[in-house]
Design a protein that fits this description.
0% strand, 224 residues, single chain, Four Helix Bundle (Hemerythrin (Met), subunit A), mainly alpha
């Protein structure tokens, strides 16, 4: 198994690569949480089942949005700047096409809760698909975006709220010193909203998973 890359650059700085890999960490983290919850042997009451359905919807929207951003922004830019990556990018884009139908299956599977077997099957298949996909991005794409160190300011309050919620999700379980540098790179319109967004996300974790504990990783691999 390859050694996972550090979230920080070799010089200790943060970059857009850091933020991309924080999302990777969150995708992996939540699949682990879904599987643990669905295999715990504890019967799901109606409130917990609904919380898991709601969390699945947030997860699948985040993953689909992440792939859309790559397909329409990051990948075309990399293809134009690094033609040698064309084969890798084609493979990653093909992975996205395989994952999308599985997300639709997940919608139906989570509706079957509290009976967990269908949801668990989707979670395990998605884990198997995402593992090599994310590892390829980290090996082939991340090195080319380490130099990007500017985060665009949200155009308005609504976008700032959305970005703050996204950072609260992706940062949960990342080492505090890494987060301090990430947040220092962000504009004030966003950082001013982060404390409330992070508090709301921790409350959401308690409601869905029964705990807000998440580790303190320095790589895109969660250390739950």
């Amino acid at each position: 198994m390859p050694i996972p890359p550090n979230l920080l650059n070799d010089d200790g700085s943060v970059s857009m690569a850091t933020m991309l890999m924080m999302s990777h960490h969150a995708f992996r983290r939540d699949l682990i949480r879904f599987e643990r919850t669905l295999t715990s042997g504890t019967a799901l009451d109606a409130a917990r089942a609904q919380a898991l359905r709601d969390e699945w919807q947030k997860y699948r929207e985040a993953l689909h949005g992440h792939h859309h951003m790559e397909d329409t922004g990051l990948f075309p830019h990399l293809r134009s700047q690094h033609p040698d990556l064309a084969g890798v990018i084609d493979g990653l884009a093909a992975d996205h096409q395989r994952i999308d139908p599985l997300l639709l299956q997940g919608d139906a599977a989570f509706l079957q809760l509290p009976e967990p077997s269908a949801a668990l099957a989707v979670v395990r298949e998605l884990t198997a698909l995402l593992a090599p996909h994310l590892a390829t991005e980290e090996a082939e794409v991340v090195p080319h975006i380490r130099a990007a160190k500017q985060f665009p300011s949200p155009p308005g309050d609504a976008e700032a709220e959305m970005y703050a919620e996204g950072f609260a999700w992706s940062s949960h379980g990342v080492a505090p010193d890494v987060l301090a540098q990430v947040f220092a790179l962000l504009p004030e319109i966003l950082t001013s909203r982060l404390p409330a967004a992070c508090a709301a996300f921790e409350a959401r974790c308690e409601r869905v998973w029964g705990t807000a504990q998440a580790g303190a990783t320095r790589t895109p691999i969660p250390d739950l």
